[in-house]
Amino acid sequence: MRDLQPGEKLVMATHNAGKLREIEVLVAPFGMSVVSAGALGLPEPEETGTTFEENAALKARAAAVASGLPALADDSGLAVDALDGDPGVYSARWAGPGKDFDAAMRTVEDRLQALGATEPGQRKAHFVAVLALAFPDGDCDLFRGEVHGALVYPPRGPNGFGYDPIFVPEGHGKTFGEMSADEKHTMSHRARAFAAFARARLPR
Fold it and tell me: What does pTM read for this prediction?
């Protein structure tokens, strides 16, 4: 597994504009550029893995082979303690084909209410992100980040994406949806996975 070089172009194996923006901000200080798989017209592979690691690796390898460029892929999701870790790797699927995360957040809340989980201590959750770096030869490395907190409802804040408006990280009063991009990038699961990736593979 080689290190990446200044000025190198990466493919971000996503069709999610929010994820692409976060990664663009994170790689910019290293003099690197990112293009999305969507912009290159690459298909989205079926996520058949049962773990974040498996799904991140299969997406990164597919994008690297198809583009001939190093590829990054992120598989991430929300794991709710009271729901036995759901939605987990199925976080995006809970939003349905229309990516309706308002509906997904309602589903999480409905299930918590059905369990009587109304107190903060009963509503613990964590975000997980696994970042995969793959090269066209199939070589792949994985980096994991987590951030723990609790869920609130109704959703708060217009920023972020996905389940951000119902997640309050430990030690903070704002949801990710209420935080600026700069605030979120100092502590998010994706930022933590990226920090591990940067230490291992980015130019110093």
Answer: 0.89
